[in-house]
Task: inverse folding
């Protein structure tokens, strides 16, 4: 049973436009959420995180939004750049537990 | 910037053979994780260590997989015997103690079992 769901396997976005990657979760005990980025033949790299006490966290071109009532979070990348082409994993952990559960990932293609 | 070191990067082995992967976490990171990532899936936790102790190995197929972190620093993951379904990327990650600490991943070992 997937506790962290990324329902879009892939997404294509024009360079310079906004990329929006979505993630849903089922476990109401999750209170810390992370996004990782992965290039081929490399390990995932931590991108940005958000605690459940917030609904938005911003770091440069990357913003994560959390909607706790909908059990939904999204990652916004503005503006999208060619180097953003990668697989993005949404991940979550529960209160008091440092085990992190990952979604299946969304492959983002930035088009020239 | 300190990195998690893993070796080998690639491993091809025949089924029924033994295979081992090594991981050296970032210095000072007490928590170490082994994840397995099958193509098209997200990383799945196999085993988690806190220093030299296993915290969670509920998803580790213990009939063929073993993991150790004897001195609480580097770690080895072993598969014996390997099966075709074990072909995957094996990722090691480490983090500081305490929750809400992001994981830092190594570049993984790509295992192909023939």
Result:
């Amino acid at each position: 049973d997937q506790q962290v769901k990324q329902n879009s396997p892939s997404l294509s976005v024009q360079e310079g436009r906004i990329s929006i990657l979505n993630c849903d979760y089922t476990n109401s005990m999750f209170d810390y959420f992370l996004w990782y980025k992965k290039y081929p033949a490399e390990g995932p790299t931590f991108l940005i995180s958000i605690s459940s006490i917030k609904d938005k966290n911003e770091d440069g071109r990357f913003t994560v939004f959390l909607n706790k009532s909908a059990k939904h979070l999204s990652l916004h990348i503005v503006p999208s750049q060619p180097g953003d082409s990668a697989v993005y994993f949404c991940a979550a952990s529960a209160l008091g537990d440092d085990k992190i559960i990952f979604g299946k990932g969304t492959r983002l293609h930035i088009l020239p | 910037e300190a990195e998690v070191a893993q070796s080998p990067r690639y491993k091809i082995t025949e089924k029924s053979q033994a295979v081992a992967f090594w991981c050296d976490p970032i210095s000072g990171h007490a928590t170490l994780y082994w994840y397995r990532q099958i193509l098209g899936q997200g990383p799945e936790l196999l085993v988690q260590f806190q220093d030299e102790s296993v915290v969670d190995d509920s998803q580790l197929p213990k009939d063929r997989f073993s993991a150790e972190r004897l001195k609480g620093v580097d770690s080895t993951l072993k598969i014996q015997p390997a099966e075709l379904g074990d072909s995957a990327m094996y990722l090691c990650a480490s983090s500081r103690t305490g929750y809400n600490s992001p994981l830092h991943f190594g570049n993984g070992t790509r295992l192909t079992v023939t």
User: Anything to note?
Assistant: The mean pLDDT of chain A is 94. The CA atoms of residues 3 and 98 of chain A lie 15 Å apart.
